[in-house]
Specification:
- It is a single chain.
- With 191 residues, the protein is an all-alpha fold.
- The chain has 2 domains: 106 residues, Rna Polymerase Sigma Factor, Chain: A; 58 residues, no CATH class.
- The protein is built from 8 helices and no strands.
- α2 crosses α4 and α3 crosses α4.
- The radius of gyration is 21 Å and the shape is elongated.
Length: 191
Amino acid sequence: MKQEINEKPLLKGLAINDKKAVETIYRENYNMVQSLIINNNGSADDAKDIFQEAMIVLYEKVRSGTFELNCQIKTYLYSVSKRLWLKRLQQLNRYAPPIEDPESTVSVDEEIEDHEKRDAEFEMMNKAISSLGEPCKSLLEAYYLQKQNMQVIAANFGYTNADNAKNQKYKCLMRLKKIFFAHYKNENGDG
């Protein structure tokens, strides 16, 4: 039971993206996931991808604030990684052997589904951003990805002041929203 007490601060750390917590979770669990993938028709690169995705699933869960982990972190990450890897093998039409469990796994189907839905939405958002055109695409990237403030953006994009840059950002966001929801409706067959 001692281990579970030690893991609460790790999960809290992960939720706020604390470097130490992330590194500890990585260090304590990566080799287990790597063995799982390599022993089941995967490569070291596959293991990195799958572990990264499993970490994202866990991160999204702890960020939600409503997540109660009722097993060890390693059991959870193992379960998520196993499900992701079996799915990947099926998509690649590779032989998916029954994976032997070194310990009990937890059901993570719902988490995987949420994660994949979010992935699909990110994909659509990327398409929407691509079809946004300039200067909107660069302006939104400067603000949201490069975390530049409005003064810097105004100077870089030739706006007279930060307020004008802010107005332009707002217009770009509205356009992006329109494009995204047009894509979204088409993809989901609502439109």
